[in-house]
Fold this sequence. Notes:
Layout: H1 34-44
Amino acid sequence: xxxxxxxxxxxxxxxxxxxxxxxxxxxxxxxxxxxxxxxxxxxxxxxxxxxxxxxxx
Length: 57
């Protein structure tokens, strides 16, 4: 029986529930968690909208 290790985000090393692929221009190799993906989107495409709560808990 194979034991699958949970996938980790390449930026924050948290476990990933749903993997996101980084955009090519970000030059990141691997999957991102939703929080890091949203942070990268806001860096490359700034605006007033909030995609997810990026505040620290």
